[in-house]
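Hey team,

Sharing the LPS export ABC transporter periplasmic protein LptC run so nobody has to redo it. Sequence (184 residues) first:
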Amino acid sequence: MTSFKKKSIFMLVTCVVVALFVGCESNFKEVQKSNFSEFVPSGEAEKINLKYTDSGRITAILVSPKMMEYATVDFPFTDFPKGIDVTLYDKNKKRTIILADYATSYKLTNIIDLRGHVKISSQDGQILETDQLFFDQKNEWFFTENNFTFTDPKGSSKGKGIDFSKDFKVINSQKISGEIESDD
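Structure output:
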């Protein structure tokens, strides 16, 4: 093969490779743009007042200044960026009131993440305060690994890590200090 033919083949291969890179770069940018989607809510509501019922009986009332629904994402959730005020009712019409500065409800897990100044009050005078608390809606169970203050008519205590039933009948604490009068 002559030197001229080798140079011609080399130049042709170089041009083809450069053309492929330029073409791929353009297509790559288009693919990036087509896969990009903005993270925006699929629905928004302001000044909401929702009532949940079961067999004609009100089980919960949720009040919030703003709700943002993200139903079209892979892990759908609902945000309450300006806080919530929830009243839960048991079968005997006893109330539990939940206040939080911020809340996120995850659809797939049925877990609600409450943040900010979280305060739960029972009709019997029991109050739990913390900066983050999770609520398992399916099992009606609250839990946190954070610091908390628990007060009831028998006394008060502070601790870190607690889980309890919606009606405060079952309470498990990890680290606790303070005095609470026992029924025993």
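The two ends are 103 Å apart (CA to CA).

Ping me if you want the raw files.
A.
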